[in-house]
Amino acid sequence: MRAFLLGIFFLFTAFFLPACEFFETKVEEYLLQFNSSAGTLEQVIVDGYLLIDGQRTDISLSNLSELSVSEKWIRLTIYEGRDTYYLTVPSFNKDFDLVEEYLDDVMTFVSVFHNTLGGIGSVSNFSVEATDTYEGAGSFQLAGVGELQSTSTGQVQDLVFEMDFDFDTSRTGGSLGTGGGSSGGGTGSGGSGSASCDNTIQISQLLSYWPQIGKGDAVGTGKKVAGNTLFSNLKPTDVGLVVDGTSGDTRYVVQILLTPGNLVANKRLDFIHAGRGAPLTSSGAVGILIAIKGGVNDGWQTNYDYGENRDTGNLFIESVSPQIRGTYEFEAYGDGFDNVKNKQLVRLKGEFCIDP
Questions:
Q1: pLDDT digits over 161-208, tens only?
Q2: Interatomic CA distance for residues 88 and 17, integer angstroms
Q3: Residue 198, SS3?
Q4: Beta-bridge partner residues of 173
Q5: Segment Disordered: which positions (predicted)?
Q6: 104 pLDDT tier (thresholds 50, 70, 90)
Q7: What is the dihedral of CA 37, 185, 258, 288, to 10 degrees?
Q8: Helices (DSSP H) in 88-213: which residue ranges?
Q9: Among candidates 143, 226, 146, 180, which has minimal Cα distance to 40?
């Protein structure tokens, strides 16, 4: 009888307790996303460095572009100078090989201008408490050593990195990313949370230096960045529109570069440019595709070699508010096209819907 009465008392008191005190608020499945275009990187504290062949780059919010943390993966994107670095690693404490192909339990480090030859990395002190699918806080450390090979010179370069991350979706008033319920959105499919707001990449033809990279169609995220975060010789006022999507085990990134004066509603613009190193002008835009699969990557640009001063496609800016919406279609080339044996060429089109 005493046990029965104690049980009744427990149920009675529990019934009147606030839900947060009776039920566990943590969730097992989560996707915490932070990116520069939505302002949510203000919710991240990062401290670290990237060392390539003795040249050190301090990692901070100024060059970190994206961070995604789920119960399975940690993914981050770093822009520095002309290069873009992508790091993906399973989200649990362990040492991992730096390898060239995606497997279940590996760390992958790739860049636009380097291929990973090998190495070892680690995740330590990983801790996340997610209170909702898209809300929570946590921290972890990343470290690694290895070797990279320059895609342009073939030079082998040493790689070292160390990074500490601390994040909390409630740290500032920034939007919460995919599914966060904020009108800011920006990291989810469609960019702003609207079902009709799409960011797509449709590749009809692709010839890569790496035979394992092929064509595919992807739906992804969209963001607006300063031009000099993609290429250091561009101006901070130059506009970069970026569509980032994945098809199977291949990641495709489209970058569209234009002057700020061309970012107006109902604007039609050709992809025509004087060539690499030349500044952007009001007369045309530059289109780029980067494809990444495992530890290899390839890139095509409308203003590479064969594309210099040629009309290689068209861009249409439909609107600039409340989202930057439009479509693109272009042909882009690899180094040396069309005089090299492997004629690297890509044809693609798509649409974007990006928060300003």
A1: 999 999 999 986 433 333 222 222 233 333 333 446 889 999 999 998
A2: 42
A3: coil
A4: none
A5: 172-194
A6: low
A7: 90
A8: none
A9: 180
